[in-house]
Amino acid sequence: MHLTMTSSGGMPSIPSSISPPPVSLPLRNIPGSYGFPLLGSISDRLDYYWFQGPDKFFRTRMEKNRSTVFRTNVPPSFPFFPTDPRVIAVLDCKSFAHLFDMEIVEKKNVLVGDFMPSISFTGNMRVCAYLDTSESQHSKIKNFITDILRRSSRIWISELESNLSTMWDGIESEIAKNKTSGFRNFLQPALFNFFSKTLAGADTAKSPEVAKSGYIDVIIWLGLQLVPTIHIGVLQPLEEIFLHSFRLPFFPIASRYQRLYDFFQKEGKEVVERGVTEFGLTKEEAIHNLIFTMGFNAYGGFSLFFPVLLDRILNDKTGLQQRILEEVRSKSSSGLTFESVKEMDLIYSLVYETLRLDPPVPSQYARARKDFKLTSYDSAYNIKKGELLCGYQPLVMRDPKVFDEPEAFNPDRFRGEKGVALLDYLFWSNGPQTGTPSEKNKQCAGKDLVVLTAVVFVAYIFKRYDSIAGEGGSITAFQRAN
């Protein structure tokens, strides 16, 4: 069920059913408008952040233009950002797939659109996430990260179980005292310790300061970079004035980032040296990319995804917990291993469905490398070199032409032959789930480990507990397994 397909040149495998077809489609002008200069971007910005929120923002414009492809502005924008907010939104699976064709698009400095945080946050260098595949350093760094993930597989599950055990011990103790426990309070330090050890070989136990506050440092570091692009939805207009009007500076986190740098330089010495000797990176490149991969991609992504995944389980009223429990107990009699976990197709489907509805990174961007024709289901559109494409995944992966009852949460959606075929349209990783990450594309190097880690996270819970209860990010009750 979980095999990946390799396409020529290492590019993500894009299903023929959604890639540009050889048949001719009617050529259509791209609908939508950027509005009057400056005023149009301000109006769209206020809708996006204040009056509508991202989901309604894209839905209303899709309905207004009667098209899943249209022109609009996305923030951040005027008055204090030197960015161009103009994008072409692509909101169906077929048009969205063009974002992964590296022959026609590039990904230089478009991780979060035309906006880019100061490179001060990453050692005054552009880390891999901001590099295009045509840049020589991209291949070196992508291969370095891929090698780290490959080597870490030997300790991945054992370290994950160890940190999950510590996390749930803390949750149980807090419930005993307060009758409730904030899940994230224990999740974030566990994730930080886990990824420091598995990705960098750096044991936080050797640095009490980092063990105590390293995960908080990463949260602040992430927030200062991304808050100008994030819809928070509270305290307007203060949010608009103070968080969305200018790029936030590095200096408040500078000393803490240096502490993280020093920690990974010392405790992750073996990994850093391998980056230098085997992959041709400088020591600084190896360390800053290691911090970014650990902090931004891994820690940041799972800090968002695991609470959503757990909420899906807690909020279910259909008996999902009992079904998961039965699958885990029947498949893991010898413990949680790569082999036993791969047999848990219900949990895999649950993870995939959560990624479909709630991808950790909701928006993906790409800039046209050259003029080309973009196709949706019923039309073709001329895209000019340099135009920025924006795909909002929570709508893309609710495409009614691909997914039955697309708004419904269905934990069985990706089971069976028909369910496996739908993996072609699961795009959370900057490519289809059936794609193969390589130095020639921008697909997440750890895509398969991400899914496996989420499956182990769920399986561990139901090896330890017969049931759990909670809501709103808190655990309120549990029943330990006999």
TrEMBL record:
Cofactor(s) it depends on: heme
Biological classification of the source: Eukaryota, Viridiplantae, Streptophyta, Embryophyta, Tracheophyta
Keywords for the protein's UniProt record, in alphabetical order: Heme, Iron, Lyase, Metal-binding
Gene behind this protein: LOC103495615
Binding positions for heme per the UniProt entry: 444
Family to which this protein belongs: Belongs to the cytochrome P450 family.
Name of the protein described by the UniProt record: Fatty acid hydroperoxide lyase, chloroplastic
Alphabetized GO MF terms: heme binding; iron ion binding; lyase activity; monooxygenase activity; oxidoreductase activity, acting on paired donors, with incorporation or reduction of molecular oxygen
Heme recorded as keyword: yes
Stored InterPro entries: Cyt_P450, Cyt_P450_E_grp-IV, Cyt_P450_sf
GO biological process, one term: sterol metabolic process
Disordered, as annotated region: 1-20
Species whose genome carries this gene: Cucumis melo (Muskmelon)
Domain of life: Eukaryota
Composition skew (Low complexity), residue ranges: 7-17
UniProt keyword annotation of Heme present: yes
Pfam families named in the record: p450 (PF00067)
